[in-house]
Amino acid sequence: MSSPYLRQLLVGRDVGRGNAAGTQMQNFVYLIGDRDAGQCLVVDPAWDVEGITQCAAADGMTITGALVTHYHPDHVGGSFYGHSIEGLARLIELTPCPVHVHKNEAEGVRKVTGLSASDLVPHEGNDRVQVGELEVELLHTPGHTPGSQCFRMGDALVSGDTLFLQGCGRVDLPGGDPEEMRRTLQQRLARLPDDLVLYPGHAYGGEHAPLSEVRRINPVFPRRDPSRIG
């Protein structure tokens, strides 16, 4: 037996309180896993890593790995517009664990965080990571960056900066690709059912909503079209 566990943490509210830059960026960090096993993965640990680990511990959960949506420092740590952001390197100090990245994102993660190749587990799209008795599916969703990923577990989709409730991630930064983002939104994610609940990487337009609602309110995310699926 197992039961899914998902906790959404908003930087500046739930963790990183008093951090002006983090509060302005409105990043979400996620803890996802198996409540019965007491194990979880942390998605994009940044800004206040000790606070994140304390939230997991308060829920009786042990962090057994990290999932990276993409390599930007506000999600994994590093230098960002003059700010030094703690992230994966600090997590490895506090809770040594594997860091799961898409293979196209590994170099970027190493560059901005200072981690070594041995710290990272590179993945292909549609790989799965086990946490307790549950599996998390890794969906390769390039566009914002070459190795951007979304994570699907049960009825939840954690989307990083690929898709927000209103809008999508920028494609004018290094590694951004408008054509890939268009394919991600109109083809790769078009296959997903309306009853999945979207949990984005930033609180831009809201915190979470079913994909059916996102399709209704998000001008860049088309309604589900069966002719595109297959």
Automatic annotation (TrEMBL):
Family matches, as PANTHER family: HYDROXYACYLGLUTATHIONE HYDROLASE GLOC
Keywords from the named record: Hydrolase, Metal-binding, Zinc
Claim: Metal-binding is one of the keywords in the record: yes
Source organism superkingdom: Bacteria
Gene3D superfamilies (UniProt xref): Ribonuclease Z/Hydroxyacylglutathione hydrolase-like
Boundaries of every Metallo-beta-lactamase domain copy: 26-202
Source species: Pendulispora albinea
Any single Pfam family the record assigns to this protein: Lactamase_B
Cofactor(s) of this protein: Zn(2+)
Protein name: MBL fold metallo-hydrolase
